[in-house]
């Protein structure tokens, strides 16, 4: 099988139509159909089912797509890298909201001292979205908190963080020296949206202790949760990095729960099949070296 077959197959998968794939690739539909037929005969499998004039991948087709997609994108990466080897270049980086708000600007500043002519494009989203963008080859690498182990991801720890349970200094729990998780869960909880690393990790911890998480507020805005906690509307569950200034100013206080480990690692992640450029490797090295001075206890 050739790269041409893989490109045609990936295009048909994405458009779910041989006619649309043919138009996209500037080919005739019979040529597309013939290439798919050759693939099916070569592997002895059926790749598509046709329902209501739409093509759907079979189980075997889906398996082939996982490989074909990365074969095609790797080729495109190599082609782009070679063609642009003497040009300025672009680095595409993803970051979760915590890292995007508190750390990445410093890393980019250090990077531009070494590579002033390389453009750094940054996408800041929650961790689930960033992980999907890595899988789709939309990013060179990303900086996020610990993710569920995925076979297609390579990870490197570069820093640490912890989740903070924060309350107004006037909250009834603020005066208590000893708190249990049960005490916390009885209060109105102000948490990030599903897909956020802080939310997902805290929910895992709650479930592992035999409880369930029933938040009163859910928001993609850490600032909204901080303001709500400051106004005694509940307890904010956030990254220490997002709330440290409010703690230092004593606008909020941190509630400590006995025997509850809320620490987490921050990681560089990229696709197993990704060929990192020299510039990308340098940026990752900056993150790791800088992370040593950003460790949180």
UniProtKB/TrEMBL annotation:
Cited Pfam families: HTH_1 (PF00126), LysR_substrate (PF03466)
The UniProt record lists the HTH lysR-type domain at: 1-58
- Kindly give the Gene3D superfamilies that the UniProt entry links to this protein: 3.40.190.290, Winged helix-like DNA-binding domain superfamily/Winged helix DNA-binding domain
Question: What keywords would UniProt list here?
Answer: DNA-binding, Transcription, Transcription regulation
A single GO molecular function term of this UniProt record:
DNA-binding transcription factor activity
- Please tell me whether the keyword Transcription is annotated for this protein: yes
Looking at the keywords, is Protein transport present?
no
Where does the signal peptide begin and end?
A: none
GO CC entries:
cytosol
In terms of superkingdom, the source organism counts as: Bacteria
* Family per record: Belongs to the LysR transcriptional regulatory family.
User: Which protein are we looking at?
Assistant: DNA-binding transcriptional regulator, LysR family
């Amino acid at each position: 099988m050739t790269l041409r077959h893989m490109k045609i197959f990936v295009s048909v998968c994405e458009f779910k139509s041989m006619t649309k794939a043919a138009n996209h690739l500037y080919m005739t539909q019979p040529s597309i159909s013939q290439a798919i037929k050759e693939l099916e005969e070569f592997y002895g499998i059926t790749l598509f089912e046709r329902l209501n004039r739409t093509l759907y991948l079979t189980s075997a087709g889906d398996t082939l797509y996982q490989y074909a997609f990365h074969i095609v994108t790797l080729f495109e990466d190599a082609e782009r890298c070679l063609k642009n080897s003497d040009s300025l270049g672009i680095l595409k980086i993803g970051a979760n909201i915590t890292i995007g708000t508190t750390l990445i600007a410093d890393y980019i500043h250090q990077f531009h001292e070494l590579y002033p002519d390389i453009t750094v494009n940054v996408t800041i989203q929650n961790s689930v979205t960033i992980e999907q963008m890595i899988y789709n080859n939309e990013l060179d690498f990303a900086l996020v908190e610990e993710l569920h182990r995925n076979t297609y991801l390579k990870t490197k720890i570069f820093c640490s963080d912890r989740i903070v349970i924060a309350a107004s200094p006037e909250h009834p729990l603020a005066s208590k020296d000893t708190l249990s998780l049960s005490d916390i869960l009885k209060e109105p909880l102000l948490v990030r949206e599903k897909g956020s690393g802080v939310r997902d990790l805290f929910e895992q911890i709650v479930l592992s202790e035999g409880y369930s998480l029933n938040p009163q507020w859910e928001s993609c805005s850490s600032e909204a949760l901080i303001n709500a906690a400051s106004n005694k509307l509940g307890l904010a569950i956030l990254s220490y990095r997002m709330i440290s200034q409010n703690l230092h100013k004593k606008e909020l206080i941190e509630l400590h729960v006995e025997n509850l480990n809320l620490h987490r690692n921050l990681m560089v992640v990229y696709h197993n099949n990704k060929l990192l450029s020299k510039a990308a490797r340098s940026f990752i090295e900056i993150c790791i070296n800088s992370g040593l001075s950003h460790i949180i206890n």
